[in-house]
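User: two proteins, same treatment. go.

Assistant:
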Amino acid sequence: MQITWQNTAEPVSMKRFLTTHGISMRLIKEIKHGSGEFVVNGDARTGEITVATGDTAGIILPAEAADETVASSDQPIDVLYEDANWLVVNKPAGLTSVPGPSNQTDTLVNRVKGHLVREGAENLKSHLITRLDRDTSGLVLIAKHRVAQGMLTVEPTAHTLRKTYLAWVSGEVTPAKGTIKAPIGRPTESPRREVMDTGQKAITKYWVEQTFGDQVTEVKLGLVTGRTHQIRVHLTHLGHPLLGDQLYGGDQQLIKRQALHASTLTFKDPFSGERREFEAPLPADLQALVQTLTAMTNA
């Protein structure tokens, strides 16, 4: 795997050139110790390297082999975008993101491995940048190699990653927009989390999209932090649990899974410099929910 950029600025050291493009010092040290090569204008270089104006420089790394402990699933994935570095998929509700005690063979990670194997990808180890709970639908961003993962999880590039969610909750949410700042912790061994003084810092922004009488509100949400179950916990804390969310006491009369959908995702691609923007349409069960709520409101 070769990754290069052209130097359009003044001459600079290879180390500075690479870190400017988001390559970590840890990876640079690994290459110096033999796990790859530095390259300038197609030639491998060692020692003190200067990247001149106009040079094309970067790194060469061995391909990432598949993790043999992860089973390969032949089940399909809904690919919204794919290039040499990124994979954006629309995850259905009911599919776990990563293998765990209850499912080792058919999670999103297993399906992505099967997809990469089928297409003969150079790198066969996926790196999930974003994750969703099993019963949350919507967009998941996956890095197709460790360099992409590293570049999108360090500042300033990490700050460009934005996600919004749509949720349907019990009751009428007021005010129409706000910021929820409430620390989240895990008081017991149960999967359930709660707002608690000793919890981790958690911040969620929300905007009311529409109301269905005083019974249900559709809200758009953005995460400032990324705690487990953050949206579900914060909305429950406000007294407005997600419809269908059994774990947090949501009303299950209209839908049997939490009514939460990761609808948009944007980030600045550190390889091309382009702004990537994606939107996942509502799945059938949430479309049906909106239709039912609309009909009930207009009745």
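Protein 2:
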Amino acid sequence: MFRKRLVYLAQLSAVGLTGYYAGQFSEKFKNDDAQTVMIDGKRVQSMPGLPIFGTVSAATPFSDVGSTKDRVSQIMKYGFPSLDNIRSYDDFVLSYDRRNRVPNWVFEHITKLHVTKNDQVDRSKCEFKPDESIHPFFRSQNTDYKGSGFDRGHMAAAGNHRIAQKHVEQTFYLTNMAPQVGEGFNRHAWNRLEKHVRKLTKVYDDVYCCTGPLYLPRKEADGKSYVKYQVLGANTVAVPTHFYKVVVGQASDGSLDMEAYVMPNQRIPDETPVSSFMVAPEVIERAAGLLFFDKIHRSKLNRINGKKV
């Protein structure tokens, strides 16, 4: 009798264990399946810390044809300033600020070829347009800028991407724009800084440029400092108080020089030299909450803002 009970208990245990492991396998299969998504007929797993959607994506359909992957790697050769809502285009990469509806930063890699006049490229055919890869809640629209008194200011300059018409057209996505004072700034002082960066391609084989907005505090009459900025339109597009550019030039011998600029978003007298807006790069990093060119140790730079390191 006792032996029969032991056999019975052993059978129950076997059934229980079998059910447990079957359940575990089934649950794992379900979980694995839930964490994957089909892309072009292939099942891809969503890894922790790098969501397939929402954080990193291509603004245009991804293709293995050509050198799309290599181009992004080349542009971001010296590191990402941050990894928030990355959008990769054919010739530049940006991080989009969904709350303010402007970029956090925009990265470009330019050479002589990129800035040389190209008769096959016609800027007048380009139109400002919202980026459909951004969720509708977070998109800026042309109507936000209409009648505001502010220009749709390029962060990746159209003149830096003359290799192909498509490249220039992509710089007109509103994800690449931020509101800029037009007269005296976007069309003048800021334009002079953009031209200066293009001229650097005559000195360096490769020029890496990171551009973006800043929202800097200002001391008010009560003695306290406040960060205040205007917003535009129904989508409350933020008007930055300042803009920055951090540029690294790489010479043919591999030596690296850095320049860093901050300009106030206001009318600037024409006689003001671009060099007067140079600042230490760490000033921008602290203000923006970003790290620029973090794969380059500052001691490896030859010059910063023209001064020997």
